[in-house]
Amino acid sequence: MSYTITKTLFTLLLILFSSITIYRARARPLIFSLVTVFVENNLPKNSPPLVFHCASGDDDLGNHTLTHHGQEYHFEFSILPKTLFFCHLWWNGKDVAFDVFNARWTTHHCARVPGEEICYWQARDDGIYLSKDYNPPTNFIKKYSW
């Protein structure tokens, strides 16, 4: 292989790896990495059930009901550049709809582990909370009010 071709290939590889590093430095999720979204019922015991419906532009996950305190539902998907999942929650005559994951978020809202993001949402009597920790989820921050 000639020196010119070797130098050109080296330059192209250097540009490629530099682009990947810059892409990761922006704290954006990698394409095709896995996301797991949890929705947990942390409402008072013996209260009405939590009902919710989650969907994206491509996937309708249907309605789900969490009937008791501590019960959870989760779903997984792979990230594409425009991935957006939202959920609409109903409880005790109140409701709230919000994005549970958006690939366009410029900062991380979810816990990150190698090759995966974990979004742990928790419904409480005063609103919806999110944890950036996982295993176990801790440090919940209130994101939405009913």
Automatic annotation (TrEMBL):
Keywords of this entry: Secreted, Self-incompatibility, Signal
Localization annotation: Secreted
GO biological process, one term: rejection of self pollen
A cellular component annotation (GO) from this entry: extracellular region
InterPro entries membership: Self-incomp_S1
Pfam families (alphabetical): Self-incomp_S1
Assigned protein family: Belongs to the plant self-incompatibility (S1) protein family.
Name under which the protein is recorded: S-protein homolog
Organism: Castilleja foliolosa
